């Protein structure tokens, strides 16, 4: 090879090397949590999390999860949060993924929404058809304005008292990701779901704790069971997803659409 050819080859190799793109780190977003997690060593609450945008590797991983048989919504949510959550306070999730299971559902929803924002930005656009004129509309959802946080009326970091029919008081905590996973996996019907929910979310001291919590929950009256389940379900915590009303761009009629968490992620 001549000197000229060697110089041209070196110049070409240099040009190619200069064009190789660097692999950028995924963008991260800070997410405020309503309850958070308590640091067992200090007793302090950690109420800020960091999430990141999802990548193609995450998309492929979640597609494999989705393709499995008998995958529950709780399983899919847990898998997504493990991929997209960087830290909760000082806890690095990749070193201890189980911390996500101890978050209440509202905080897990907040992380989910944070991952959506980190991945897509502050807005998501969907195509929907107007029920009046049948024309297609591009609907833009503002992830800040359309998903306001509900502020609980009680301190969700403390046991919540509920008075039963006989005047006795049961103390409750809000359900966590671990609760929903267990109930989705093991409950055989809606009544059994209520039994497991009551048993898992009741708070006791060692002196008064029933030997068998599910049996205790099963022996409560229907009225008391309904009171406990309703108390837990009525405590609105975290971002709430629901109906969004927009105006058709063609006929000006109102369009009501409902977006769930999975469609918000996948479009």
SSE arrangement:
Elements: H1 3-19, E1 28-38, E2 45-52, H2 56-67, H3 73-84, E3 85-88, E4 91-92, H4 105-120, E5 123-129, E6 136-142, E7 149-150, E8 160-163, E9 169-172, H5 177-186, H6 190-201, E10 202-203, H7 213-218, H8 222-234, E11 238-239, E12 243-247, E13 254-258, H9 261-266
Antiparallel strand pairs: 1-2, 2-3, 3-4, 5-6, 7-11, 8-9, 9-10, 12-13
Helix pairs in contact: 2-3, 3-4, 5-6
Question: How would you describe the overall organization of this protein?
Answer:
The protein folds into two domains: 28-148 and 240-266, no CATH class; 153-235, rbstp2171, CATH 3.30.2220.20. With 267 residues, it is an alpha+beta fold. It is built from nine helices and 13 strands. The longest helix is centred in the first third of the chain and has 17 residues, at 3-19. The strands form five sheets. The protein has a four-stranded antiparallel β-sheet. The radius of gyration is 25 Å and the shape is globular.
Key words describing this protein structure:
single chain; 267 residues; alpha+beta; rbstp2171; 2 domains; 4-stranded antiparallel β-sheet; 3-stranded antiparallel β-sheet; 9 helices; 24% strand; globular
Briefly summarize what is shown:
Helix content is 39%, strand content 24%.
Q: In one word, what is the shape? A: globular
Largest sheet data:
4 strands, antiparallel
Strand content: 15-25%
- Fraction of residues in helix: 25-40%
Cα separation of the termini: 56 Å
Order of helices and strands: HEEHHEEHEEEEEHHEHHEEEH
Radius of gyration: 25 Å
Q: What is the total tally of β strands?
A: 13
Q: What count of helical segments does DSSP give?
A: 9
The number of domains is 2
Give the neighbour order of strands across the main sheet: 1-2-3-4
Task: Give the overall average pLDDT.
Answer: 87
């Amino acid at each position: 090879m001549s000197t000229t050819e060697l110089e041209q080859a070196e110049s070409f190799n240099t040009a190619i090397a200069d064009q190789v793109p660097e692999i950028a780190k995924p963008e991260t977003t800070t997410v405020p949590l309503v309850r958070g997690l308590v640091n067992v060593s200090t007793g302090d609450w950690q109420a800020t999390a960091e999430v990141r945008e999802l990548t193609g590797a995450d998309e492929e991983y979640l597609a494999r999860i989705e393709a499995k048989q008998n995958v529950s919504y709780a399983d899919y949510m847990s898998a997504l949060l493990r991929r997209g959550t960087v830290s909760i306070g000082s806890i690095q999730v990749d070193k201890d993924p189980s911390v996500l299971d101890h978050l209440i559902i509202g905080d897990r929803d907040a992380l989910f929404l944070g991952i959506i924002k980190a991945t897509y930005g502050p807005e998501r656009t969907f195509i929907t058809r107007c029920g009046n004129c049948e024309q297609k509309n591009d609907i833009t959802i503002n992830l800040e304005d359309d998903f306001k946080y509900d502020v609980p009326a009680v301190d969700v970091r403390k046991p919540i008292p509920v008075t039963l029919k006989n005047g006795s008081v049961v103390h409750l905590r809000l359900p966590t990701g671990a609760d929903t996973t267990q109930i989705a996996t093991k409950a055989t019907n809606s009544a059994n779901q209520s039994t497991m929910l009551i048993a898992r979310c009741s708070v006791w001291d060692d002196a008064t704790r029933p030997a068998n919590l599910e049996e205790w929950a099963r022996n409560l009256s229907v009225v008391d069971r309904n009171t406990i389940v309703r108390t837990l379900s009525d405590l609105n915590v975290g971002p709430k997803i629901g109906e969004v009303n927009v105006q058709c761009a063609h006929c000006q009629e109102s369009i009501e659409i409902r977006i769930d968490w999975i469609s918000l992620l996948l479009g």
